[in-house]
Amino acid sequence: MTNEKKILFLDLDGTLLNDEKKITEGNAEAIRRALVEGHKIVINTGRASSSALRLAGELGLNMEGCYAITYNGACIYDLALKKPVYRVAIPMEHARYTMSLAKELGIHSHTYSEQCVVSETDNPDLQQYLAYTSMTADIVPDPCDYLAEDPCKVLIVDYKKTGALETYVERIKDWAPGKVDYFYSCEELLEIVSPGVSKGNAIRILCKLLDIPLENTVSAGDADNDIPMITTTKIGVVMKNAAPHMRQYGNYVTEHDNNHDGIREIIEKFIL
Questions:
Q1: How does pLDDT run across 41-77, given as a tens digit for each residue?
Q2: CATH dotted code for 7-88+197-271
Q3: Domain boundaries along the sequence of the chain
Q4: Whole-structure pTM over 0.90, yes or no?
Q5: What is the pLDDT of residue 60?
Q6: From CA 272, how far away is CA 267, in angstroms rounded?
Q7: How far apart are CA 35 and CA 32, in angstroms?
């Protein structure tokens, strides 16, 4: 690959996907043009790998040059070869602690197998999450015993915004350093990953694997968990539909939102 080729990192919800969770035809056509010219397209999402891979297939992002960074940077998939090229997990003992603390505080938590969500209980928070991500769940007595390998992520959920996540953070903050990192992907979801995992760090890893300089990187996002991605790439784009505070992190704000071909705007301006 020559240094003229570029790599575009895209968040899914609120960025590549419109409010109906679909890709607009204008965005899809621009992505096809970028791939034909030899550029790389990378989904960069907090979603689980199984959810991202399903969406990638539906969006046609499974050809050579397409990759997916999942679990907020804990895993990188080659979508054409259908295999991971990088994965870092939470040690099981640490995953168990984070989930047991949530149980103690009466907060829903779950983790993930390769195929689906894994939860100890079925409850409204879980059902809302499954509806949002179009995933399925295995309900098991002990998720950590059930898993075949250490998980990439644990998710703590409070869709009712009761303040329970703030209590959880207060309880975990002294234990967490060196064991796990945690951050909000939105008000209702607290992400727990291995130390150092972020969308930005995964960008550096994939660019090194592909021998693409950071000088040739572009990214686009709309939410707080996109900040490490936006601030890592040479050109960090904030979507028009993002919250106002996000604009300080990018060096470009789109004129079009996620419902009106915002990604086509980015590709035509910075990639092609």
A1: 999 998 999 888 888 988 889 889 999 999 999 999 9
A2: 3.40.50.1000
A3: 7-88+197-271, 92-193
A4: no
A5: 85
A6: 6
A7: 5
**Alpha-carbon gap, residue 11 to 238, rounded angstroms:** 10
Residue 137 exposed, middle or buried by CB count within 10 Å (0-12, 13-18, 19+): middle
String of DSSP letters for 175-238: T-TTT-EEEEEETTEEEEESTT--HHHHHHHHHHHHT--GGGEEEEE-SGGGHHHHHHSSEEEE
How many other CB atoms sit within 10 Å of the CB of residue 132? 14
Give the integer Cα–Cα distance in Å for 219 and 132.
Answer: 24
Q: Helices 164-172 and 92-104: crossing angle, nearest 10°?
A: 130
> Which residue in this structure is represented by tokens 């000088």?
215
**Nearby residues of 165 by Cβ (< 8 Å), 6 or more positions away:** 107, 156, 158, 184, 187, 188, 190
What's 92-193's CATH class?
Answer: alpha beta
Q: Which residues pair with 110 in a beta bridge?
A: 155
